[in-house]
Amino acid sequence: xxxxETILAQHPFFAGLSERHLHVLTGCASNVVFEQGQVIFRExxxxxxxxxxxxxxxxxxxxxxxxxxITIETLRAGDILGWSWLVPPYRWRFDAxxxxxxxxxxxxxxxxxxxxxxxxxxxxxxxxxFAEIITQRLMATRLQxxxxxxxxxx
Amino acid sequence: MASRGGNAETMLPRxxxxxxxxxxxxxxxxxxxxxxxxxxxxxxxxxQFNMLYVFGVGExxxxxxxxxxxxxxxxxxxxxxxxVTKAMGKLKRGDVIGVRGPFGTAWPIEQAExxxxxxxxxxxxxxPLRSALYQMLAHRDRYEKIVLLYGTRSPNDILxxxxxxxxxxxxxxxxxxxxxxxxxxxxxNVGVVTSLxxxxxxxxxxxxxxxxxxxIMMRFTVLELQRRGVPPSQIYLSMERNMKCGVGICGHCQFxxxxxxxxxxxxxxxxxQPLFEKREI
Lengths: 154, 281
Description:
The complex is a heterodimer.
Chain A: H1 4-10, H2 19-26, E1 29-34, E2 39-41, E3 49-55, E4 57-64, E5 68-76, E6 80-81, E7 95-98, E8 102-108, H3 109-118, H4 120-146
Antiparallel strand pairs in A: 1-8, 2-7, 3-6, 3-8, 4-5, 4-7
Helix pairs in contact in A: 1-2, 3-4
Chain B: E1 14-23, E2 28-35, E3 49-54, E4 58-63, E5 74-79, H1 83-89, E6 96-103, E7 116-122, H2 126-138, E8 146-152, H3 161-169, E9 174-179, E10 182-183, E11 189-190, E12 207-212, H4 215-228, E13 235-238, E14 254-255, E15 258-259, H5 260-263, E16 266-268, H6 269-276
Parallel strand pairs in B: 7-8, 7-12, 8-9, 9-11, 12-13
Antiparallel strand pairs in B: 1-2, 1-6, 2-5, 3-4, 3-6, 13-16, 14-15
């Protein structure tokens, strides 16, 4: 059976991280399972974790008055769910719901913030990785906003 | 390879009779047409286009989206957005339109044999790629993995829904669909089509990528394919410009030193790479 540390080490998000840092991260990690349809977190709640998705799919949703619930993105195995734990006031900005049974590793945000304060090298490594993910999501969001499949005359 | 030269024959529309008009989505439809002049058959290669003429209204270029191995029935899918396509959408079974073609270059179906094929389609860009899919599926044993990544605006804008469902059920074809926006009832993926590339199951070093969609989508798709390790010489794009004559005479579709109607619409990416980043073109 694979240990949590092995799973973290093999996840692309943590590729290149030192054994020492992986060991520290493992201390803040736990296995979680969300059933199909289960709400993982809701907008406005305390953002206390982030998740490495291992199996399944998660929909990020927002509720708009008069429109209803809109899915803004879906995440799949290999993706990272959540970065609100990094930025004050540490509140989720949207809802997350398991579209199908989803297995993930949850990392405790408060635990990680404390470890990063004690070990700035670890903080730097994590921030580098999150900055890349945030950049990719920002680019994807810009493309979505462009409405590139919109109508063109002919 | 251009299929026809700039002779008078290429400028003369042939009559084709409409067999069926199928509404694919709220603003797209597919025309099924057959030769009305008794001349049997119309050979074309996947990726080529025809100039369709609605008599008294105008002529527009539309990619052929049918099976190249069945030359008796031609299909063209288009969006109802301009004067000609709106008039075309009002035609009925039995009406006659003019057809010139086929024009332009084709997808490298034969060169892809023995390799994985990844097809990235955006919006109505799936239409010219459907011909390629038909042809490859007719000779499935000649290819390794075939992966279709299709992105569109919303679940209501998905083209060829039945076929996609059928292809998805086949064990020898991977189909991944994503939409830019959806209400919560949609159980599929939401996100741009480029987000499907990093984990799509294909061998980046031994694959051919066929890409068609809005130019901005193709730009980001190429970046993502290259990040996966696909060499530029293995990426093919179908470009869209204002094609008029179809034979490289009028110059309406000029793309730097190329005429898209004759030298394209399908280009190997490394041939057009420097042009792709020039905003003046």
